[in-house]
UniProtKB/TrEMBL annotation:
Belongs to the OMP decarboxylase family. Type 1 subfamily. Keywords: Decarboxylase, Lyase, Pyrimidine biosynthesis. Its EC number is 4.1.1.23. It is an enzyme of class 4 (lyase). PANTHER family: OROTIDINE 5'-PHOSPHATE DECARBOXYLASE. Pathway: Pyrimidine metabolism; UMP biosynthesis via de novo pathway; UMP from orotate: step 2/2. This is Orotidine 5'-phosphate decarboxylase.
């Protein structure tokens, strides 16, 4: 992993726009996060193109299916050599164990606990009557027991999870600079707060990609870290 913990969420529809955006800010970020929007539009070709920029690639596919299917999907992305891949921790122990076993040696597999766009009400809407904090703690424990490298959680939980999983790898999205627009994110903290609480990777998208001046935005976030 590089020094700068910021992975830019490249959630833009056109490949040319994505390359242009990343080239503008590449000196001020540590990696690229390519998610469902990017992968569904551009597939392996798109990932190869982005890898040419030379930054580590976090392939955020949030896999969640039966163990056999998830393991096969992991094998299909071996060739892309991602530094990090996500699976949903709620997919359960067998799925996570098989995902980790099928991943490449240099790929960290991390379990998404509770999406940062969820609050108590959203969780109870899907039948889970715990707080996001309790549910994230429970799924972090399950991810660890399943042999994953770490988890994805919000900045509200990362400090407590870090205390219980000292050598875990913690990816924190839902980050907003002070006074930044939350949008659909509900459990937000600033990049600095997440880092101080023990985040290994800071995932930041719209505060940079939708800024009037993405380079200035990336620089000012970097300056706070
Ligand atoms: O796995 C993720 O990266 C992820 C998990 C989560 O709980 N919340 C979350 O926002 N993300 C991703 O992090 C990025 C956040 O983007 P912004 O809200 O624009 O900074 C998006 O690409 C999301 O897909």
């Amino acid at each position: 992993m590089t020094h700068n913990p910021v992975f830019l969420a490249v959630d833009v529809p056109r490949l040319e726009t994505a390359i242009d955006l990343v080239q503008k800010v590449s000196g001020h970020i540590g990696g690229l996060k390519l998610g469902l929007e990017f992968f569904c539009a551009h597939g392996h070709h798109g990932v190869h193109e982005m890898a040419k920029i030379g930054l580590p690639i976090f392939l955020d596919l949030k896999l969640h299916d039966i163990p056999n299917t998830v393991a096969a999907a992991m094998q299909s992305i071996h060739v892309l050599e991602p530094a990090i891949v996500t699976v949903h921790a709620s997919g359960g122990r067998a799925m996570m164990e098989d995902a980790k076993a099928a991943a490449g040696e240099n790929t960290k597999v991390v379990g998404v606990t509770v999406l940062t766009s969820f609050d108590d009400k959203d969780l109870s809407g899907v039948g889970i009557d715990h707080s996001p904090y309790e549910q994230a703690m429970r799924l972090a424990e399950l991810s660890k027991a399943s042999g994953l490298d770490g988890i994805v959680c919000s900045g509200h939980e990362v400090g407590a999870i870090h205390k219980q999983w000292k050598d875990g790898f913690f990816v924190v999205p839902g980050l907003r600079p002070a006074k930044g627009k939350a949008g659909d994110q509900k459990r937000t903290v600033t990049p600095r707060e997440a880092r101080d609480a023990g985040a290994s990777v800071l995932v930041i998208g719209r505060p940079i990609s939708r800024a009037e001046n993405p380079l200035a935005a990336a620089r000012s976030i970097e300056a706070t870290l």
